[in-house]
Amino acid sequence: MSVTAAKGFTAAGIAAGIKQNGNPDLALVVNTGPRRAAAGVFTSNRVKAAPVVWSQQVLADGELTAVVLNSGGANACTGPRGFQDTHATAEKVAEVLSAKGTDVGAGEVAVASTGLIGLLLPMDKLLPGVEKAAAELSEHGGEKAAIAIKTTDTVHKTSVVTKEGWTVGGMAKGAGMLAPGLATMLVVLTTDADVDAEGLDSALRGATRVTFDRVDSDGCMSTNDTVLLLASGASGVTPAQDAFTEAVREVCDDLARQLIGDAEGASKDIRIEVINAATEDDAVEVGRSIARNNLLKCAIHGEDPNWGRVLSAIGTTQAAFEPDELNVAINGVWVCKNGSVGEDRELVDMRYREVTITADLAAGTESAVIWANDLTADYVHENSAYSS
């Protein structure tokens, strides 16, 4: 049930007519309390969509009652009109929820959008869609909400972790423009744990740092990335902060893996583990460099264990290492030892979906994992065809 698995939440997903194909395109998630604490993380892109700017502002007090999300249009790079449309959307949500008996102001409503950049949203369809979604709010509406936020996603993405007396659930969308700084993703996480805004913020930032921020499909950063965590407190249970952070991390990690698994055109999921680095930052930098090497991504697609391209990617970084001490394994076979030829590359079996690359820097004790995918003709076709 994703975002409605936790007590104290309702959701809906409907077709408002924003997408020309008539598919679902508007989702609404409502926190019915008693607590309405919230936290969020957003794209680090300097070009931010209007909904991102709005949601960052309304989260300043650490409270949210509702989140409204649309697919079919990013409302990015749309000037003052785009921000006015975002405000009007939040106002409409507040109006319809207040009419249903929940006293809500626009400043308690986060807005998220996804789709093409540079197009104004059809407000004559979106605003009536808000009314329709509010009428369909349900404790069982989580899956429909997850379906409504898809763009090029082939499947909707949800996850739930239940602990002793409390739950964390979530939904995500994303299939392209996946790179650190989140990804081109919209994510809503909910919990019925009784946690304040400070605890939510700490858990969310700790979780995203090692999950969403370590997904790197194509090196492209979105203008709309939004990850929100809402707490209703409906379980009456206040878990230990470490336990709560771990539960949030589990849900984020599951959703991040689903994002990579659904990456546009991908035929391989690539787990890049950098070990024995001098610092964690070095490990992350090296992992990202490997993940963004298009020659290597093409080789992986062709099931070629081309370890030379791994070393080439490592060499472009500022990480501490000695070239003649580097080791690389592909699917457990150490094809490179001490910066030179290792085990027979013919031993590497690359027939299966998941490929593991291990890069040993022999410079310390720190490590990091980055997830990526191969580069395919289908990716090129999808992104050349996806235009206005």
Tell me the layout of helices and strands.
Layout: E1 9-14, E2 26-31, E3 37-42, H1 50-58, E4 66-71, H2 79-99, E5 109-114, H3 123-135, H4 142-148, E6 157-162, E7 167-173, E8 186-191, H5 197-209, E9 226-231, H6 241-261, E10 269-277, H7 280-291, H8 294-301, H9 307-314, E11 327-330, E12 333-337, E13 340-341, E14 354-360, E15 366-373, H10 377-385
Parallel strand pairs: 4-5, 8-9, 10-14
Antiparallel strand pairs: 1-2, 2-4, 3-9, 6-7, 7-8, 10-15, 11-12, 11-14, 12-13
List keywords for this structure.
6-stranded mixed β-sheet, 15 strands, about 400 residues, 10 helices, globular, single chain, 5-stranded mixed β-sheet, alpha+beta
Describe this structure in a few short sentences:
By secondary structure, the chain is an alpha+beta fold.
Structure description:
This protein is α+β, with helices and mostly antiparallel strands and 388 residues long. It is 31% helix and 23% strand. It is built from ten helices and 15 strands. The strands form three sheets. Strands 13-12-11-14-10-15 form a six-stranded mixed sheet. Helix 2 links the parallel strand 4 and strand 5 (109-114). Helix 1 (50-58) packs across helix 2, helix 5 (197-209) packs across helix 6 and helix 7 crosses helix 9. The chain is globular and about 70 Å long. The two termini are 34 Å apart.
Strand content: 15-25%
Helix content: 25-40%
Q: Report strand order across the widest sheet.
A: 13-12-11-14-10-15
Query: What is the distance, rounded to the nearest whole angstrom, between the alpha carbons of the first and last residues?
Result: 34 Å
Poorly predicted runs are 177-183
Question: Mean pLDDT, nearest integer?
Answer: 93
Order of helices and strands: EEEHEHEHHEEEHEHEHHHEEEEEH
- Specify the biggest β-sheet: 6 strands, mixed
The rough form would be described as: globular
> With helices defined by DSSP (H or I, 4 residues minimum), what is the helix count?
10
Beta strands, count? 15
Question: In angstroms, what is the radius of gyration?
Answer: 22 Å
Structural class: alpha+beta
